[in-house]
Write a structure and sequence with these properties.
The protein has 140 residues and is of the alpha+beta class. The chain has helices at residues 29-33, 51-59, 81-100, 113-131, and strands at residues 16-21, 37-43, 70-75. It has four helices and three strands.
Length: 140
Amino acid sequence: MVTDRHTALRVDPAEVEWSAMRAQGAGGQNVNKVASAVHLRFDIAASSLPEDVKQRLLALRDGRITQQGVLVIKAQQYRTQEANRLDALARLQALVDSVARPPRVRRATRPTLGSERRRREAKSRRSALKAQRGRAGVQD
């Protein structure tokens, strides 16, 4: 059994900037009055995460990461600001968890002799089949 040497990385809430705004979409009069949606801004380079995790986060093809390396998450699913804040923090943590473990190193392997033989036989069968095609009675 392989033990996990990587401990769970926790995002420090002190490293997160918050801003509140009015949510979009349906919600009646309440949505026009209450700033329940939140923007979470997380500066990846200035965070206390390990350097390799920072590099993998910055390498993600994610539209929420700005060119300056700031991750912006907008949460507006819930009716209360606190619930949206918790949702945004959970989404940030999930993103960090997804890159916490380094990717496995791919080692090149060779095909087996049997698979190479089967491939070559299939190629020669296909070649023979194609060689039979053409107009009838025409000699080259």
